[in-house]
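Lab notebook, bench 4. The sequencing result for the construct came back, and we need a structural model before the next group meeting so we can plan mutations. Quick request posted to the team channel:

Model the 3D structure of this chain.
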Amino acid sequence: MKKYGLNELREMFLIFFEEKGHLRLPSYSLIPQNDPSLLLINSGMAPMKTWFTGEQEPPRKRVCTCQKCMRTSDIENVGKTSRHGTYFEMLGNFSFGDYFKVDAITWCWEFLTERLGLDANLLYPSVYCKLAVSLGIQ
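Done. Here's the predicted structure in token form:
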């Protein structure tokens, strides 16, 4: 399997979802705009909260992003283990009333196995059994 760099993987993900009809959005600021419930952006979907709640209309029904995030919920563990960091980028593909889990999971599987070339026999997806069966995943 080919090894990819971080920038190459990020771009491959965003291009893949653009090909699926998603609008690529730039990363929003780490400081939330008009959202007093958050000190910092802590997830890829946080800047889109008003779109998910229906308060505002999204620019398109499908969007994809690479969102800068700051994690503070367990900041006391940063540096103690390799699993805890504070700053990261979260890749995301989002639908606002256009598609749901079956399409999202199918596209994820396609991206991982066909675009990145990961061996499907080495992947163990964790989804609800009914959904896995309907996708033909054993």
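The first strand starts at residue 23 and ends at 25.
Will bring this to the meeting.
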